Amino acid sequence: MIDTGRVPLSNIELDLYRQGISAAATGSLSEAVECYDRLLRSRGDFWEAWYERGTVLEDLGRFADAIVSYDKALTLEPNREALANLWLRRGNVFQYGLGEYDASLTCYDRVLQLQPEQVQGWHHRGNALLYGYHQPETAIICYRRALDIDSQLALTWRNHGNALMDLMRYSDAIVSYDHSLAISPNDEIATQARYQAQQELGLIIQTPETQPAWLAPDLTEVQNPDVCNQSIDQSNSTPPDASADRTSGASLLLEDDANCSFIQLVDDIYTIGRDLDNKICLRSQFSSRFHAVIRRLITEAGDVVFEIQDGSIKGKASTNGISINGKPVTRAFLNNQDLIVFGPRAKAIFTAF
User: Fold this and answer.
1) Fewer Cβ close by (within 10 Å): the C or N end of the chain?
2) Both 186 and 281 in a single domain?
3) Within a domain: residue 167?
4) Are 272 and 291 in contact (CB under 8 A)?
5) Residue 247 — pLDDT band, cuts 50, 70, 90?
């Protein structure tokens, strides 16, 4: 028998555990789950295997199953550090996978009870408050706590800036984005957000006419125009309400498994998804072949608004759906700085100008 520290494992059991770790590391996620399942059938008291199984299920987009694995690990009394990490992973699944913000905040509170200086607990708690509950003031408190512990968190500085943008504190937001970019100079989302803050302050008169050097050409060219030029039945579209931003133009800052890309929305319709025939192609295993549609619409008053619809042009829903600022939607009008999530590692920021 080999003792892993708390639970003694036989050579066969240890081999299964190591095979699961190796399979997950190489991207063979289903194989990894199978290894952990075989191990847990004989050693259901091995919390480390329940934890690793949960992380793989997260990557597979099987969020409810991941919660079950984490819950099982929690019942087996791991050490204090492991407990905090389990509650953190559980909170992230509830927030980013399932969009259940009450449950995520409960998890983050447990993390911070166990480890008050856990920076990721403060960071993700801030995200839930900002994007889930639209409480920028309270989110800023969480981000500041994280940054007081570790000032080198580029993503925390960026989200801190986003919260300040919501409060229309544009000068302070620029300072936050500057901190973020000093740590992560190639973060194009922070670069675009800083540019937006400058525009709000009137520091930039017009949008640059030149194409940014980091613009991905393959995301601005239609590989099959027929997909996006089909006749669209808009009879079911809800008329724009007062909450829809009127704009002369818009853009998406898209982040997926492949890269970060800037896309000017100049056409009347964009299909979005994993299939290469889409006008905007998502590089993510969690996105559907035809995941969403964005339409540019003109109101009776002559205003331009942008609407997003889950699924294909023909109305077939995507597998994982879409959310805007943490709320699942099937159809919605887009507002400036909306965060659109297509899956665990595919998201975009909508900017109106």
Assistant:
1) N
2) no
3) yes
4) yes
5) low
List all residues 6 or more positions away from 353 whose beta carbon is below 8 Å from its beta carbon. Answer: 199, 207, 247, 248, 249, 250, 251
Task: For residue range 286-299, list pLDDT tens digits in order.
Answer: 788 899 999 999 98
**Beta carbons within 10 angstroms of residue 187's beta carbon:** 20
Is the sign of the CA dihedral 320, 322, 327, 331 positive or negative?
A: negative
Q: Which of the listed residues 155, 171, 200 is the one where a domain comes to its end?
A: 200
**Domain membership flag for residue 292:** yes
| Structure token pair of residue 167 | 């409060």
Nearest to 348 by CA among 266, 250, 275, 211: 250
DSSP category for residue 247: B
Tell me 115's DSSP state: -
Cβ-proximal residues to 89 (8 Å cutoff; 6+ apart), any chain: 51, 54, 55, 58, 66, 70
Position 58 in a domain: yes
Bridge partners of residue 3, in order along the sequence: 8
**Tens digit of each residue's pLDDT (9 = 90 or more) over 66-124:** 999 999 999 998 889 999 999 999 999 998 888 888 999 999 999 999 999 999 999 99
Among candidate residues 183, 187, 300, 168, the one with its CA nearest the CA of residue 241: 300
Q: How far apart are CA 84 and CA 90, in angstroms?
A: 10
Tokens of residue 325, six digits:
């600022």
Measuring CA to CA, which residue among 297, 277, 304 is closest to residue 288?
277
- What CATH number is associated with residue 71? 1.25.40.10
* Tally of structural domains, the chain: 2
Q: What's the average model confidence in pLDDT over 126-139?
A: 91
Last residue of a domain, one of 200, 233, 266: 200
Q: Which amino acid is at 61?
A: G
The enclosing H or E element of 343 equals: strand 338-343
What span, in angstroms and rounded, lies between the C-alpha atoms of 310 and 257? 20
CA torsion through residues 176, 178, 182, 188, sign: positive
